[in-house]
Amino acid sequence: KPTPKIERICKAQGWTLINPSAVLANNIEEKISQVTWLENLTRFLPQHSILACKDVAWNFEPFVLQFNRAHTGNGTMLITSKEQLRGVQETFPERPVRTSAFISGPMFTSNNIVTPNTILTGNISYQITGMAPFTDNPFATVGNDWHIPQTILPYDAQSACKEIAYAVGKKLQQDGWRGAFGIDLIHEQSTGKMYLIEINARQPASVTFESQLQSRARSKTGANALTTAEAHTAALLDIDIAKATLVPITNGAQVIVRNGRVHADNMDMLITALTKRQLTTIPYPNTKPGTDLLRIQSTASFMDAHQRWSALGNDIADTIITSV
């Protein structure tokens, strides 16, 4: 992700940056400025308000409260009582917050590409969110599954995903964005409506594995299309890909174990057990609580339904539990 600090260092060293500006990225990603930036595209958001935390009223219904900066669920809270709200207000009375109607349903991610003359809308993956034993935070995203959207997401909802991705891409294009961006969406179970809940103005973390799955799929089908990473790079280098498409994928999943969920002394045993199940494991040297410790990947699905593991997903979860 571009940051002002990286931009300053590169300028001082005389290095050329090909990423869009950090100011633009932050303006798009941060929860307060994002609403203004979206302009008429706020129609895709759940009902929302922006006000000082002390001025938020309890209306006897659960709602989502977000501070300006939030990532993988941090900075986002589900407020379910007047007492809980009062506690947040006493701690951060003057801090601006965005409140949104609570939407119940599965969440999805789409990684897309912007160039000066085209928008490439990408595959839809299911967000594995708030699931034990990987997290206790109901808003924390711990993985992606590229198979299950085909079974739980109706065609009109998939079309709505594409519509929202394209509309956000056009707005980004107008503001000079180039390369990858991600959107997170939620499919309301009671109405079937699709809502935009987050914009990731950068190369989202899931692009790497998604592109590996795309490369594997392309080698099997001979499809004349680009992976998301290839298209991202081409867009940043101003290579014309107006006639290109992104490789479609129909399977694959990954999930992340974070520090604090597994005892470090049990990591070697855990990796061995997962490798025997034909799973790819990528360990990280991080030690800070909450940071990525182990990434688990497969060309198969981890999910059977919304919030329900498949047999393989259950096997992984059970293996994690025995390593705690």
From TrEMBL:
Residues 35-237 form the ATP-grasp domain. Keywords: ATP-binding, Nucleotide-binding. GO terms for molecular function: ATP binding; metal ion binding. It comes from Candidatus Magasanikbacteria bacterium CG10_big_fil_rev_8_21_14_0_10_43_6. This is ATP-grasp domain-containing protein. The keyword Nucleotide-binding applies. The keyword ATP-binding applies. InterPro entries: ATP-grasp, ATP-grasp_PylC-type.
